[in-house]
Amino acid sequence: MQVNRNETPKQKPLKPCREIxxxxxxxxxxxxxxxxxxxxxxxxxxxYGRDPVVDSFYKSRAWQRVRRLAYERDNxxxxxxxxxxxxxxxxxxxxxxxxxxxxxxxxxxxxxxxLCHSCHNKEHK
Length: 125
Known about the structure:
Number of domains: 2
Largest sheet: 2 strands, antiparallel
Order of helices and strands: EEHHHHEEH
Mean pLDDT: 88
Strand order of the largest sheet: 1-2
Shape: globular
Number of helices: 5
């Protein structure tokens, strides 16, 4: 099999940078200017903004089990979209009462709902 070295691989199309107000075009999520800033922001968030107890909870077997139960109960569908007459695959199992607000409800099935990313993002705006 011969490879034509003159052919260039197809590149992703240019799209606007995801940074609010930035009009730079990029093939990635963020332009070169904001890509660097986002990395630093995430490092600071991971170092100073995350709660290690909550982080370890989300890695626990107990959470994995109850998350799976909630997803199965909801038939893998976003409950918000379903209530509006749309069938959309759920991507996230959401705590109705946040873990930081009431630690005791973290594993309660009644405190969990399956959501799509769009509905989950609306919940956390």
